[in-house]
Specification:
The chain is mostly helical. The chain folds into two domains: 4-94, lambda repressor-like DNA-binding domains (434 Repressor (Amino-terminal Domain), Orthogonal Bundle); 101-137, no CATH class. The chain contains seven helices and no strands. Helix 2 (26-33) packs across helix 3. The longest helix has 28 residues, at 67-94. The radius of gyration is 26 Å and the shape is elongated. The chain starts with 10 loop residues before the first helix and ends with a helix.
Length: 137
């Protein structure tokens, strides 16, 4: 199966192409949407998802691009982007060795902490021993 995210450009790139080919500036789109230029810029840099207001502004400036097309395209793009990110995350998790360490935060009563500290108890080592015993190692 072909990874569709690689064959479909981002919604931001697509909109940017339409704006460029029609000579529409970020300022003009911002005015049509009733949004700040910064908000439009963030979308065009693919830092935020397509909002309905932006889609309506694009549709107002370029009527041949329907609101439904933009929203459907963006929904598909976001789904594919999420799937790609999930695959990358799973791949990173698979490369972490099973015996690597993790950090855990434990809450205990103050008096136990004070007594254990005075006794020189290593909390990490004690927790490991207790967990192994509980799990039957």
């Amino acid at each position: 199966m072909v990874d569709v995210i690689n064959t479909i450009i981002s919604t931001a790139d697509m909109v940017r192409g339409y704006l460029d080919s029609n000579g529409i500036s970020i300022k003009t789109l911002a005015e049509a949407c009733g949004l700040s230029e910064r908000t439009i810029y963030r979308f065009l840099c693919d830092e935020s998802k397509l909002s309905r207001k932006i889609a309506e502004g694009v549709n107002a400036l370029i009527p041949e691009i329907s609101l439904e097309f933009l929203m459907t395209y963006d929904a598909k793009y976001q789904l594919q982007k999420t799937q790609q990110e999930r695959k990358a995350s799973e791949k990173r998790q698979k490369t972490v060795p099973a015996n690597s360490t993790v950090r855990k935060n434990v809450t205990i009563p103050r008096y136990l902490n004070d007594r254990a500290m005075k006794a020189g108890i290593n909390f990490s080592q004690l927790l490991q021993v207790a967990l192994k015993q509980q799990l039957g190692y």
